[in-house]
Design goal:
2 copies of one chain form a homodimer. The first copy, chain A, has 8 helices and 14 strands. Chain A is globular, with a radius of gyration of 19 Å. Chain A has helices at about 20-25, 40-55, 65-75, 145-155, 200-210, 215-220, 250-260, 270-275, and strands spanning about 1-5, 10, 25-35, 80-90, 105-110, 120-125, 160-165, 170-175, 175-180, 185-190, 210-215, 225-230, 235-240, 245. Chain A is of the alpha+beta class. Chain A is about 30% helix and about 30% strand. In chain A, strands 6, 7, 8, 9, 10, 11, 12, 13 and 14 form a 9-stranded mixed β-sheet that branches. A 5-stranded antiparallel β-sheet of chain A has the order 2-1-5-4-3. Chain A has 2 domains: about 1-110, Aminotransferase class 4, branched-chain amino acid transferase, N-terminal domain (D-amino Acid Aminotransferase, Chain A, domain 1), CATH 3.30.470; about 120-275, D-amino Acid Aminotransferase, Chain A, domain 2 (Alpha-Beta Barrel). At the A-B interface, α1, β3, β4, β5 and α4 of A face α1, β3, β4, β5 and α4 of B.
Chain lengths: ~280, ~280
């Protein structure tokens, strides 16, 4: 991992001890797929970051400065993953956010995740997502639920976990959104009470004319096809969920082609190569 | 602030970039009152930390090493606040906690907070606490709700905020628990769906034979006396909540004397001095 930290517009070696990211998870992040040194979905990621910053009252750094620093991390023209972490200044004890502070931000470069193959299985997680409309949809840094959900799946030896909210609605995968094909239409769970409004999800809703709605566990298990989405992996078809299995479905292949049309990292050849490797 | 960081048993200058505390709030903390270089409630704080670590599957450092480092931060025999922050090792992307890792921990020394005087007012916070039984009671580092609640109170120019859960039960103050005197008995909200099981709260439940139960907003507003508690300030009588005002109540004075009996930092003389200063 190659990481660079900043405060305001200035690179720094370290953030202060007791900063609010490490104290309270008081921040936001974006995880972006980089293709040949570029971040094709940068505008969507930045827009989501800005919306989250408004909800959390976080100061935003200068987009041009962040973008220039991001591109310079990939000046070899490589592929990979770019993570942006954003917090606010101020240290010491106490939850009160400072009225004015410079943003703390970090960029890090990571390899693309290992290819998963075309055999992603999943389970229903035991831990539920709490309902918090005040920052539903936001990709914030309070992620203990996801940490415990991921630990559950690792214990069970299962690739992915699907998460319900406290009331039993299906919300998402642990680190991705969910699309289910029901009666010929793509549905995706609403994320207005919990969950993250994924950038890839946003593009797919548009491309597939998918419906954001309440989704039940029975609808997922009865669906004709199911896939997970995120901005790093694109579309991951679900092959097994407990005892339910799905064969390849042409609607997923079609969705992948549409996605490849708007992000070269998900181009069809690349997707095939990923699945074979 | 004087802060020292450690990994395992070893002091370090910094934690790795992208550590899980700053990435996900994947950790716990304790905030302790120090009296003349000692931490009278150390065993209670450590017990709560250990319980939280079990729930989050966090590795615990060696208690003797942490205690020695804590005491050395106050080797001038001073009073103050000691904060312990605990996370786990592992960096990079992905929620999966490493199967084995060394604990990351930090100790910091802070001044006692400014005296509040005997005129603490409060409001009902707009933001609600989400219900998450998987780590209710635990003093974890996912604290965005408290950050936003505190910002609300600062906007409103009010000292403290009382928080309801999503279903409308009263849970706590922003950084403290709540005790209400109803029909001659002290009640305190249960924290089995959200909220923090405060160390001071634990001692007070015992001292006052208080009942942990569901508490409504109407019960708080109709109570004969109300106070907030935390391990740094002890007992803070509530004087106003919106249009409701409470005169001093002998049951609160009695509770303060009981508390002073088990923590010299809250000794009655000290409390009087704090209120006068």
């Amino acid at each position: 991992m190659n990481a660079r930290r900043f405060i305001g517009n200035d690179p720094v070696d370290a953030w202060p001890a007791g900063n609010r990211l490490e104290a309270y998870g008081d921040g936001l992040f974006e995880t972006m797929r980089v293709h040949r040194g570029n971040v094709p979905w940068w505008p969507s990621h930045w827009a989501r970051l800005a919306l989250g910053a408004e909800k959390l009252r976080l100061p935003l750094p200068d987009e041009a400065v962040v973008h220039a620093a991001a591109v310079s991390l990939f000046d070899d023209g490589g592929d990979g993953v770019l993570k942006l972490l954003l917090g606010r200044g101020g240290t010491g004890r106490g939850y009160a956010p400072p009225a004015r502070s410079l943003p703390l931000w970090m960029l890090s470069r990571h390899d693309l995740p290992p290819a998963r193959g075309a055999d992603t299985d999943a389970r229903w997680c035991d831990i539920r997502l709490a309902m918090q409309p005040a920052f539903a949809g936001v990709k914030h840094c309070n992620r203990l639920e996801q940490v415990l959900a991921r630990a559950e799946c690792d214990d069970a030896g299962v690739d992915e976990g699907l998460m319900l909210d406290i009331e039993g609605h299906v919300i998402s995968a642990i680190a991705g959104n969910l699309f289910v094909l029901v009666d010929g239409r793509w549905l995706t769970p609403a994320v207005d009470h919990c969950g993250v409004a994924g950038v890839c999800r946003g593009h797919l809703i548009h491309l597939l004319q998918a419906v954001e709605t309440s989704v039940s566990a029975a609808q997922v298990e009865g669906a004709d096809a199911v896939f997970l989405s995120n901005a790093v992996r694109g579309i991951l078809p679900l092959v097994r969920l407990g005892s339910r299995a799905w064969p390849p479905h042409p609607a997923i292949a079609a969705a992948r082609q549409l996605l490849a049309g708007i992000h070269p990292g998900f181009a069809f050849d690349a997707a095939l190569k990923t699945e074979r490797s």
